[in-house]
Amino acid sequence: MNWTQIQPGSVRLNRLRADAALDGYDPYLIWADLTNFAGFSGLPKDASGKEQIPVAVELVRNYVPGDFTGVFAAPAIYRQARFCTGLVPHDKLVAFRALLRAGERFKLGLPAIPQVDTQPRNFAPAVRPVPVVIGIIDHGCAFANRAFRDPATGKTRVKWVWDQDRNRLDAGRNAGNHWQRVRELGYGGELDAGRIDALIQSYPDESRLYREISYEPAFRDRSHGTMVMDLACGGPNPLRHVAGFPNADPADNSRNFEGPASTAPIIVVQLPYRPAKDTSGASLCVHILDALHYIRRRALNFRLVVNLSDGAMAGPHDGTSLLESALDNFLAASQRTSLVVAAGNGFELNCHARQRINANSSGAPLNWRVLPDDFTDSFLEVWLNRTAGAAVTLSIRPPGAAAAQTVAMGEIWIGDRAGTPLCCVVAGRNSPNGPGRGSFLVALAPTRPRSRASSPAPHGVWEITVGNNTGTAIDVDTWIERDNPALGDTGPLRQSYFVKNQAGIANTGTVNSVATGAETIVVGGFYGRGRLFQEIGGASRLTEVARYSSSGPGHPDAGNRYDGPDVSAPSDESPVLRGLRASANRSGSTFRMDGTSVAAPIVTRRIANMLSAAIPPPLGQVKARLQIDHAKTRATVELAREGAGRIKPGKES
Fold first, then answer.
1. Sheet containing 266-270: which strands, arranged edge to edge?
2. What is the Cα–Cα distance from 97 to 68, expressed in whole angstroms?
């Protein structure tokens, strides 16, 4: 592999070539630019055919279109907002950055979104006056399932579905004109309750219904989003079996064990899934922020509980990422919205390392195993503490290479073979995704590129070593980004990992990197019948906490929080009966799924039920109401994984 340092103005750069200083750009954007966006979904084009680049932005002022004429356009929903998403013409990135003031930042968000729709807002909200609306942001939401219909009228409770697929309104995928344009955001397509009811009546066969509207996420028999929807707001289901839920009695019309959430209106946002689901979480900054604004607008002034069982593993983990800052800003300003987030499943994945590196020395090498047959890019992020100086380096040695390449802070190096970029290291003194902290991004091309003409990145063990040339010790966290296949995908997406039994490998600090902000409600997982198993086996007894459930604490630099999940909920029946059983895509069918993804919607249901009480708690007190201290004597590591309380379904208070 040949290594080349990338300087400002380098001919290897495409859209960033004109900038005199590359430090401070999102490192994922630099990698995308060097590879001409080869590892990302295609860029949208405007009416003239010019490519547009989607970004999420934080401003120190409110967004005013006239301040960014020709270089950036945000959807209409973001007028007078500090945090927004939008599009930058591909040849205007440098001009856009030049307009940003001190303290302002932007981050790449792909899969891409198409040109902003400038038509005036004109929509008729269909949510009827009720105490609580439940929002679901997920993948594969089978909205026609009977679990989401009103049992008395047979009408759908799903008031809106927004599919964020940027090609949703293409003629070949919207032949019946069922999907409508989302005017405030300008991409994807939506269905309202009236259209959903008409489709259900016209196509009683749900498989045929989804084919009629080309809704590929529900073609398969099961999906992540449908399971999450059922646990959060599905109606009575005698087949659902969740630890703590009494078995449903079909003759019992009170539904007390499921509560008002079983009849609440639902608003669904389907995250982008074409050409494939982005399992790394790289595009979340754009699409989750857009989804929240969409749901909040459609829910009008009613109380709103939103479930997000998605996330990423890499990031600063101190609450300062652009998305987390935007979420905190949104939730603090919206006194009627709660956002429930899954803690993540990274506890046993060997994807996090924490090292203290003494002055003028190097840390122990980290052996990063990258698997063969991976069609996707692989990413590793190294984050320094805020006191770390600029004299920090990263050395990287590819599999089989005799020597390592050393990259100093502020530099960019790319490794290639026969002109094909295989690896890139971007060293940023002040990352836009974690202001005030230096970081390194290591990006690898696929080890099995889809084109046989392209060279594969080497698979095997990559050696990563951080050098500290400063006069004081520094703390370093290294995270490998998520690359596991989505539910139902056959791959071959392959999760890379650190070789086991190395010094520094840590299962603490593995919580979802979207979940370390101050305002979200973060949910870990436990075995519903774990205590029974814990009481047998003595010192080697099984833990009650789900073995995979990610752990706090967050990074020590996080001043606002983060010790661990706020609460935990069942994610499995027991250590031997994995997962929970709930609705599959077709009415009446069920399947099992485990993970904190299924624990989070149980808490979402509980919050919806709490807020539907005759005298509901103020939204600002929801988290405190959930955090019932279940056992103060538990070991610290368990508290870092379980939070302050366990939520048992059906035990409303």
1. 189-192, 158-163, 266-270, 132-138, 303-308, 337-342, 521-527, 567-572
2. 10
Phi, psi of 472 (to 5 degrees): -130, 155
Residue 37 lies in a domain: no
| Model pLDDT for residues 138-180, shown as the tens digit of each residue | 999 999 999 999 988 999 999 999 999 989 999 889 989 999 9
The answer to whether the beta carbons of residues 574 and 532 sit under 8 Å apart is yes
| 148 in Cβ contact with 235 (< 8 Å) | yes
Summarised one tens digit per residue, pLDDT across range 474-524 is 999 999 999 876 666 655 568 999 999 898 999 999 999 999 998 999 999
pLDDT band at 639 (very low <50, low <70, confident <90, very high): confident
* Residue 230 backbone phi and psi in degrees, to 5: -65, -40
- Mean of pLDDT over the chain: 86
Residue 72 maps to a domain:
no
- Tell whether the torsion through CA atoms of 294, 298, 303 and 306 is positive or negative: negative
Q: What is the mean pLDDT of residues 600-620?
A: 85
Let me know: does 53 contact 283? Beta carbons within 8 Å.
no
CA–CA distances in Å: residue 610 to residues 15, 529, 615, 650 = 51, 25, 9, 11
Provide the whole-model pTM.
0.90
Residue with tokens 């398969």: 220
Q: What are phi and psi of 204, to 5 degrees?
A: -60, -30
pLDDT, one tens digit per residue, over 330-384 is 999 887 899 999 999 999 999 999 999 999 999 999 999 999 999 889 999 999 9
Question: Dihedral sign, CA of 499, 504, 505, 510?
Answer: negative
SS3 annotation, 197-237: HHHHHHCCCHHHHHHHCCCHHHCCCCCHHHHHHHHHHCCCC
Whether residue 86 contacts residue 73, with contact meaning beta carbons closer than 8 Å, is answered with yes
Beta bridge partners of 54: 87
CA trace torsion 288, 487, 270, 109 (10° rounding) = 40
| Residue 448 belongs to domain with CATH number | 2.60.120.1290
Is the pLDDT at 127 greater than 50? The verdict is no
Please indicate, yes or no, if residue 146 is contained in any of the structural domains.
no
Dmax of the chain from CA atoms?
A: 73
- Cα 499 from Cα 496, distance rounded (Å): 9
> Would you give the DSSP letter of residue 100?
P
Please name the helix (run of DSSP H) or strand (run of DSSP E) that holds residue 608, with its range, or none: helix 596-611
Burial of 559 (0-12, 13-18, 19+ CB in 10 A): exposed
Query: How many domains does the structure of the chain reveal?
Result: 1
Q: Helices 322-333 and 284-298 sit at what angle, rounded to 10 degrees?
A: 10
Give me the pLDDT at residue 372, please.
95
Q: How far is CA 117 from CA 3, 121, 283, 480, in A?
A: 43, 10, 20, 37
**In a domain? residue 630:** no
Q: Where are the alpha helices (DSSP H) in 458-595?
A: 530-534
* Token pair recorded at residue 435: 């202001």
| Structural domain boundaries, residue 406 | 352-498
Structure tokens that stand for 189 in this block: 């397509």
